[in-house]
Amino acid sequence: MTESTYRIQGATGEWEVVIGLEVHAQVTSNAKLFSGAATAFGAEPNTQVSLVDAAMPGMLPVPNRECIRQAVRTGMAIDAQINKWSRFDRKNYFYADLPQGYQISQLYHPIVGEGQIEIVLDEKNPDSSTKVIGVERIHVEQDAGKLMHDQHPTSSYVDLNRSGVALMEIVSKPDMRSPAEAGAYLSKLRTILRYVGSCDGNMDQGSMRADVNVSVRKPGEEFGTRTETKNVNSVRFVMAVVEHEANRQVDVLEAGGKIVQETRLYDPDRNETRSMRSKEDAHDYRYFPDPDLLPLVLDDAFLDECRASLPELPDVKRKRYEQALGLSAYNAATLTADADTARWFETLVAEAARIQGKSESDVAKASANWLLSELYGALNRLGKTLETSPVGPTDGAELLALVADGTISGTIAKQVFEIMLETGDKPGKIVEEKGLKQTSDTGAIEAAVATVLANNADKVEQYRGGKEALFGFFVGQTMKAMQGKANPQVVNELVKKALAG
């Protein structure tokens, strides 16, 4: 386990940062937590609102089984305690986008108890730079609506489409000690949620956001007073909040001031936090058990179904890629950091193995190298993602097979790949139409070698005189004369033979 050395240097000495995150993750479901209204992102305002969501009199909430199932699956994915008995509470506060005047949440008896998430702090050394961050709880609650301040010059509008959408609030323990650890934790949590399928993790759309709790202390002392910065919607911004807020608190304390327990907002344009309101305590919300909802009681059959539905999770997959497929620790970590990337890679490997008639372990390294260097490089250049890639995993596997069986050289493969990106054509078709097949015709290659040596008699003398580094020059000139279509292994052998003669 890696201990953080991150410290803030103040006038009175070093300060340590203590960080906890409360992550609100929108549950993947077609309907809301207590109603049948739709949850699709981007719908016209107030078109996905049931009478329950609008808090019409006499409307009773009915729990959505799928939302409960997704929360349980998420808890299982982080090795957390699953509570067979849990209860919903009313959290009372009054705000324009909260029609009921209260939020249905879980304070005293959450559905998921303590768990943990292992983070990696150095991607190049993932096995030797880990730290375990504790998770205190996951509870299920309703989201509020959304105030819209830019629709009218003097009035604010309310969109209730989000009202009643199911959220998982995932509360970490105060185990993080640097901006990098907070960023790694949030990234890993998002990866797990996407693997499980319980949240899409799209922070730019608001379906995952973090409340960042920060305090500072002299190393080894008691925890200081914390502030909470609300609704931070990117990993980069979370790290920026930690850094700014910790430095601000150090400045206040060293000037003789006190930190006020409060809620703050982050302004990314100015890279600063500012006070929003004093921080409420639990009793300020007047929590009490929701009288309209029975306690949730989960049976063993339901829990078994949840556990059986879990996919292979990222840490297990990373170790399998290293041990069974022989990938480097760095490549394995990179490929498993995103669920879509891992799925793309596994299709690529399976197809490459099928086409070449080999085992997946035989083709995995070449597949990983091509995906992470050639394909990623091209997609970055084109401003595309794997999802919008013009080249699919089956096409990539066919290209790799053409190189593996000697049909084309690695150099020609790069040319073929560029044409695939432009046209969407299959690699076999491109090779056939463009006449790019690699030749092992020793007669043609021998003739090219003879011409190269004849045109560079002075260099031949230097080589035979001991300047062996020129060997690569002769090979390169021969490949050039053959327009890159000669088999490099045959070229090497024939050049060596000719120079020896």
Describe this structure in words.
With 501 residues, the chain is α+β, with helices and mostly antiparallel strands. 40% of the residues lie in helices and 18% in strands. The protein has 15 helices and 16 strands. Strands 1, 2, 6, 7, 10, 11, 12, 13 and 14 form a 9-stranded mixed sheet that branches. It has a 3-stranded antiparallel sheet with strand order 5-4-15, with no helix packed on it. Helix 3 links the parallel strand 12 and strand 13 (262-267). The longest helix is centred in the last third of the chain and has 23 residues, at 360-382. It is elongated, with a radius of gyration of 30 Å. The mean pLDDT is 92.
Number of helical runs? 15
Uncertain regions spanning at least 5 consecutive residues:
none
Protein structure class = alpha+beta
Q: Beta-strand level of the residues, as a percent range? A: 15-25%
Task: Give the CA-CA distance, first to last residue.
Answer: 61 Å
Helix content: 25-40%
Shape: elongated
Strand element count? 16
Q: Determine Rg (CA atoms, Å).
A: 30 Å
Sheet with most strands: 9 strands, mixed
Mean pLDDT reading: 92
